[in-house]
Structures are given as structure tokens and as C-alpha cells.
């Protein structure tokens, strides 16, 4: 009766947070989200996240792909591509399979890239292997989980 199409086109969004919207709380969805407003909370999406140039997110983002033009103060986990466009400002750590950063964008944080085979466990969560991580002086300072 109703056929649901799987489409990751930026013209098709399941959820839209408008430029004049302020949302305090977490968002969880299986679809694609476009954010042009302000969010104070985490965004967990099985689809893609598009962050407009006027968007301001204070929280962590977990999605398949993330395309950002606005500001994010939080960590991003993208199982696919994280595209940081020229107007974007990202202050947080990232765990991604692929990273594209345009000239003029700002990124302050740590980056960990995983291969496609290590990107997902059977339950869909991102694999985080236990390894000793060396700091810039070569000392083993902490263990990643």
C-alpha cells in the first residue's frame, strides 16, 4: 500500500529543524535530518545529517553521513563520510570512515579514521578497538575504549 523509498538525496528529509527553531533534547530517527536551527542535545540518526550554515548544535552527532556548513560543539561519529564545508566550525572529536574538509572550514579536535570493514559491528555500532594511544611525545598516555 505505502512504499517507503530509501533515498539519501539532500532534497528528501524525514525531519527538518528550521532556522527559527531552538530544540533542547535528543533526536533519534532512522531517516534523514536537515538542521538549520539550534539544538542543545544529541542527534542519533541511522540516515544522513545535513547541517545548514546557520545551524548551531551543542551535542554529539551519530549518523551514516554528515554534511555540515554550520557550527557543532560536540563529537561526530560518521559511519561513512563527514564533509566539512567552508563555512563550518567543528569543535569536538570525530570518528569517521572518510573525511572531506573544504578550505576555510574550522576543525579543532581529534580525528580517528576507521576502515569500512571495521566501521560496523554486527549490531550496527562502530567498532572501537582497545589500543594504547601515544601522545605527541611518544608516551603511552591513555587507552582508547
Automatic annotation (TrEMBL):
Biased composition (Low complexity): 121-130
One Pfam family linked to the record: Bactofilin
Annotated region described as Disordered, given as residue ranges: 117-145
Domain of life: Bacteria
Bias kind Basic and acidic residues: ranges: 132-145
Family of this protein: Belongs to the bactofilin family.
Name the record gives this protein: Cell shape determination protein CcmA
The organism of origin for this protein: Acetivibrio thermocellus (strain ATCC 27405 / DSM 1237 / JCM 9322 / NBRC 103400 / NCIMB 10682 / NRRL B-4536 / VPI 7372)
